[in-house]
Write a structure and sequence with these properties.
Structural class: alpha/beta
Strand content: 5-15%
Shape: elongated
Mean pLDDT: 89
CATH architecture of the largest domain: Alpha-Beta Barrel
CATH class of the largest domain: Alpha Beta
Largest sheet: 8 strands, parallel, barrel
Number of domains: 3
Number of strands: 12
Number of helices: 23
Length: 597
């Protein structure tokens, strides 16, 4: 069977006291499926310490897989369960190294116990818009985990990019203005000259490092300082200077400008490897990596930015051209340099987030172990995180339509399918991502990368984990969405298992949910369009729990319950005789006549 219905084990940390003995460790969690009518269970990992359970490998093999015939996958740690989960898209050096080490350990241990997959939330790191209020260390890394300072030294064009041009061009531009206007030079004069020479300093980065300053402001301050110093030294106004004295000022100014322009890249490099605290320095790393991806036409940049625009325009039911125009964007200016594009972080941050995740799986430094060696046949699946209250759409990489292109690129680069999509409609809805729209936009044949589905009543308030009632509208909705993905290839390959997991709530939520999912699977495999679903899909059939014969028998069995304690039974020849009739003085003989009339 291609589609495998399973259940999640649940978390020991949030379970009721009566359930905790059944969830104390991976071995106990693996046993939870045996009374649920399935032979697959998703083990919800709460700590890597769970892998250290005594004799775990042997118990999982002999008692779970061989004796019970149960297989399983691992849902890796998540902040939703109060765990400091690995943040694979972090640009903070400490977190990148910690996350890499932790995910390698989880993959290695999961493979040792023969897990079918390891699933993680695609991004749970601090949302990009919130970084400016978060204190972080300035020690940053690139997407391979190398120091960002080394990355900038290797890519000197990025340093020129920050300044807006070559150092000598910047110095000459300022000197040109000074020669024309002397002491009356203003910041606006420098800005105008820069624009004329196509020098555009990236003040959104410069301001972060030099306390809100702009390059134009810094250079203007140098001029003012030197001229005022000369005035003070010579005790006369600049306009009273002799040509020789003005030449001296020009020489000092030239030296100071060169020194300042040379100093700034060096200070920037020092800044991104310092241990000092700063508000949201991770943004600086994301800006640099975004520009690098843009310049190198990185496939993740090209595909994800385009897909994001496609998604948001489709969501608003507008053409791409209309949507771009309304948002002051254009296809020719999809660059981090453009203020309007940069402000729409949801268009480009997902691409950078994806690049950092990609980097973990293709390390180029011996400092980082290659996680790929633990994959195949075990797969690594990415799932949308659930939307946080007030930040529903702010996570860096939550839309499966966007991280699909990461999965495609990883599999292409690795030359084998080691990454997969995990869909969770509840999580998507809580992030204001319409699953039906995602299904419509999904690439043709791209359904082959969907290997895991987390199922539940499609709530917008995650994590709800509500049951799926057999024959309900929720069951019908899930089928409709899954069928759309099946048209794109989901579950079409008979050689690949696809796991449809009911993510459980309390114990009483299981029975109907498992039956509903098995019914969904039955009709998916028959390729029945949603509009042609028969009554059997809703449980109404001669052999179903809602069969007409069973319902009629139930009705007859309980037919007289509304009359309980209201009837008496006189002599047999009178049959059932109402108490109300006796109280009104109706004789049994008259009752009998009325009964036979």
């Amino acid at each position: 069977m291609v589609y495998v219905v399973g259940v999640s084990s649940g978390f020991f940390g949030v379970a009721e006291a009566r359930e905790r003995p059944e969830l104390a460790g991976l071995f106990k969690k693996a046993q939870t499926s045996i009374t649920k009518g399935v032979n697959f269970v998703q083990l919800d990992l709460e700590s890597t310490a769970e892998f250290e359970e005594p004799n775990l490998k042997e118990k999982m093999k002999k008692d779970i897989r061989e004796k019970l015939g149960v297989s399983y996958g691992i849902h890796s740690e998540t902040k939703a369960a109060g765990v400091e989960a690995a943040e694979l898209d972090s640009a903070i050096a400490f977190e990148y190294k910690r996350a890499h080490k932790r995910i390698v350990e989880i993959l290695r241990k999961s493979k040792e116990i023969d897990s079918k997959y390891v699933l993680v939330h695609s991004s749970e790191s601090e949302p990009f818009p919130l970084l400016e209020r978060i204190l972080q260390t300035c020690d940053l890394v690139d997407f391979y985990g190398r120091s960002l300072s080394d990355f900038l030294k290797e890519n000197k064009d990025l340093l020129d990019w920050v300044l807006g041009g070559k150092k000598e061009e910047i110095v000459n531009s300022v000197l040109e203005v000074w020669k024309e206007k002397g002491e009356k030079i203003t910041i606006e004069d420098i800005i105008a000259t820069f624009a004329k020479r196509k020098i555009f300093p990236k003040n959104f980065i410069i301001g972060e490092i030099w306390r809100g300053a702009t390059l134009e402001g810094i250079l203007h301050s140098i001029i003012v300082t030197i001229v005022s110093r000369e005035e003070h030294y010579r005790h006369k106004l600049f306009k009273e200077f002799s040509p020789e004295e003005k030449e001296e000022v020009l020489r000092l100014l030239t030296e100071e400008l060169k020194r300042e322009v040379e100093r700034m890249p060096s200070e920037l490099i020092e800044f991104v490897r310092s241990k000092g605290l700063h508000y949201g320095p991770e943004r600086i790393a994301y800006y640099f990596i975004a520009k690098w991806m843009e310049l190198h036409k990185d496939p993740l940049w090209e595909k994800i930015v385009k897909a994001a625009i496609t998604f948001f325009s489709a969501r608003e039911k507008k053409s791409i051209e209309e949507w771009l125009k309304e948002n002051n964007l254009s296809l020719e200016r999809l660059t981090i340099d453009d203020e309007n594009f940069r402000a729409r972080y949801e268009l480009w941050v997902p691409a950078v987030s994806a690049k950092y995740i990609f980097g973990h799986f293709f390390p180029i430094s011996v400092e980082y172990e290659d996680p790929k060696k633990y994959l195949d046949p075990m797969i690594f699946a990415l799932e949308s995180p659930f939307g946080g209250r007030g930040i529903e759409e702010w996570y860096r990489l939550s839309n499966p339509y966007l991280y699909y292109f990461l999965i495609e690129e990883v599999n292409k680069t690795a030359n084998k399918e080691i990454f997969a999509v995990a869909l969770d409609l509840e999580h998507m809805l809580s992030s204001k991502i319409d699953p039906e729209l995602v299904a419509e936009l999904w690439p043709e044949e791209g359904g082959k990368f969907i290997r895991v589905i987390h199922a539940g009543w499609p709530s917008t308030l995650a994590p709800a984990h509500l049951p799926i009632k057999l024959g309900s509208r929720a069951q019908e909705y899930l089928y409709k969405v899954y069928y759309k993905f099946r048209l794109k290839g989901f579950g079409k390959d008979p050689k690949k298992e696809c796991w449809i997991i009911f993510e459980r709530g309390p114990p009483e939520t299981f029975m109907d949910s498992v039956l509903a999912l098995k019914t969904i699977v039955e009709f998916l495999e028959k390729d029945v369009p949603p509009e042609k679903l028969p009554l059997e899909f809703y449980g109404i059939s001669p052999t179903g729990v809602f069969a007409e014969e069973r319902q009629l028998a139930t009705i007859k069995e309980h037919a007289y319950e509304p009359l309980r304690d209201l009837l008496v039974l006189p002599e047999e020849i009178h049959g059932l005789f109402g108490r109300a009739a006796i109280e009104k003085g109706v004789s049994p003989e008259k009752w009998k006549k009325e009964e036979l009339r």
